[in-house]
Structures are given as C-alpha cells and as structure tokens.
Write a structure and sequence with these properties.
With about 270 residues, the chain is an alpha/beta fold. The protein has 11 helices and 9 strands. It has a single domain, classed as Alpha/Beta hydrolase fold, catalytic domain (Rossmann fold). The longest helix is centred in the middle third of the chain and has 18 residues. The radius of gyration is 17 Å and the shape is globular. The chain starts with a strand and ends with a helix.
C-alpha cells in the first residue's frame, strides 16, 4: 500500500494505492476540473486506484495556456502525473470525458497496447474533423466558433457559458443545477482547449489507428455530439464497443450509479 494525498489542489489521488488493483486515470473536459468526478470517486475508491488531475489553468490562473493546452503538451503533463503516481504499479484504464478525448488518445501512443480507454461522450479529435460535412454535428457544435476569436473576453465567455448551461438543461436531461457553474474566472481558461486543439488535431491524429480495447459510453440525450456510427469507428479502432446511458452530457452528475456500473463492468471484464 502507498499512502497518497491531494497534490497542490490540482490532483486527487485515492485514499491508498494497491498494486493488486487496476488504476483509473480520469481526464475532465471543458469547462470542468477534477471536481466533476467527485461522486464517481466516492463510488469507485474502495475497488480501484484513482487519479483525477485538473488541467493547468482550471483551478489557478496561469500564463501561456495556449501552449499548455496543445495536444502533445497536455498529454505529456498527464503522462507525467501517471508516472508520478504509479511508478511500476498495476494496469491502467484511461477515462476521458468531452474534450479530454483527444488528449487520452494521444496518451495511448506512449502507453502499452494493454492500456484501455473509456470515452464518455467524446470522440478522438480526428473523428470530429471527419465530421466537417455532417450538418447535424456542425449545427450542434457551432458554438465552438465563438471560442476562436482572440478578442472575446472572459466576461462575455462567462455569460455565454451560462447560456450553454441553460441550453444543455433544456435539450438534454442534465439539470442546470448539476452542470458545473460555481467556478471562479480561472475555469474560463479552459476555452484554450478549443483554440489549441484545432491547431493540432489533424496533424497529430490524422493516420492513427488504435489497437487498445476501447469502450464508448454515450448519453442518449447529449445535446452537443452525435452518437458515433460503426463505419467511422472501424476506421480508427480494431477493438471497440459502445453502450448507451439515458443521461445528458454529464452522466457523472446525472446518473452516477449507472455510469459507475458500466465502468466497473468494463474494467472487470464483465458483460456490459
């Protein structure tokens, strides 16, 4: 057993690490930080080693965020955290939500093929690029264009996020009270996710094909992304599966019990 504690308010590590247990690395999307996994961690903490980092800038203000959020840079940051926490312990499953998907895929390039990945309402960056001629997906993700303007300030972005929360609650099942909102202005640094990823996605992931075992968990009422189709998945993966949840975009807030059950079934090798 290795005793570990929260590190610098940016990293949650489970109560103890046990070399006999699987390790789960949770990666949050935008505009979240590690706290979005709190309820999930409460459920899984006794059975798995848990690592939940916050991306730079989402809990404290930092400079050069555009560089920090570049695909290779943030993936390296997460790999270093994994190495710090894990040493030579246990197999690892990455669990990525929303905009964390491309970073998790990038990490797989530097981890053993035995590393598994769970994607929750997320696609690899290249599949988002592949959807540029998909009118339904373009309509759902049209809000991303706002985040590319360099002159948009945090006050305006904060108001816009408020509207996104209302829309998500209206269109999906997520309660507006559950969707993350009680952040200081630093959470809005997360908009650099979009600016950086659009610079990097096509070049980093263009020819990638993953042999890892990958599970997609998809919310039936996600207002932002269409459910992936088999033909686009087969282009990128050799060993993938998908299960549905009756939830909004944030199942870790909407339906914790069902989400955790699917995570456990996949990690333990049970039938989904």
């Amino acid at each position: 057993m290795i005793e570990l504690k929260e590190w610098n308010h940016r990293l949650y590590l489970g109560n103890t690490f046990d070399s006999k247990r699987e390790t789960l690395l949770f990666l949050h999307g935008f505009p979240d930080n590690m706290r979005v996994w709190d309820k999930v961690c409460e459920d899984l903490d006794e059975d798995y080693n848990l690592i939940c980092p916050s991306a730079p800038g989402t809990v404290t203000d930092e400079s050069n965020l555009s560089d920090l959020y570049r695909l290779e840079s943030l993936a390296k940051y997460y790999r270093e955290i994994l190495s710090f926490a894990m040493a030579e312990l246990t197999p690892v499953t990455l669990i990525a939500h929303d905009m964390a998907g491309p970073y998790a895929h990038q990490m797989l390039k530097f981890l053993p093929d035995s590393t598994r990945l769970i994607c929750i309402n997320t696609l690899s960056g290249q599949m988002l690029i592949d959807r540029k001629f998909n009118p339904i997906q373009l309509m759902k993700s049209s809000y991303m264009s706002l985040f590319q303007f360099p002159f948009v300030n945090k006050t305006l972005l904060g108001k816009y996020w408020s509207e996104i929360r209302k829309s998500a609650a209206r269109i999906g099942r997520s309660s507006v009270l559950n969707i993350p909102s009680s952040y200081n202005e630093n959470i809005l640094n997360g908009f650099h996710f979009y600016k950086s990823l659009l610079k990097d996605i096509s070049s980093f992931l263009d020819d990638s094909f993953w042999k890892n075992e990958i599970l997609y968990i998809w919310s039936t009422e996600d207002p932002f992304l269409n459910r992936p189709q088999q033909k686009e998945m087969d282009k990128r993966y050799s060993n993938w599966s998908i299960v549905d949840l009756e939830s909004g975009h944030w199942p870790m807030l909407d339906d914790v019990q069902s989400l955790c059950q699917r995570i456990k079934s996949f990690v333990n090798g049970d039938n989904l």
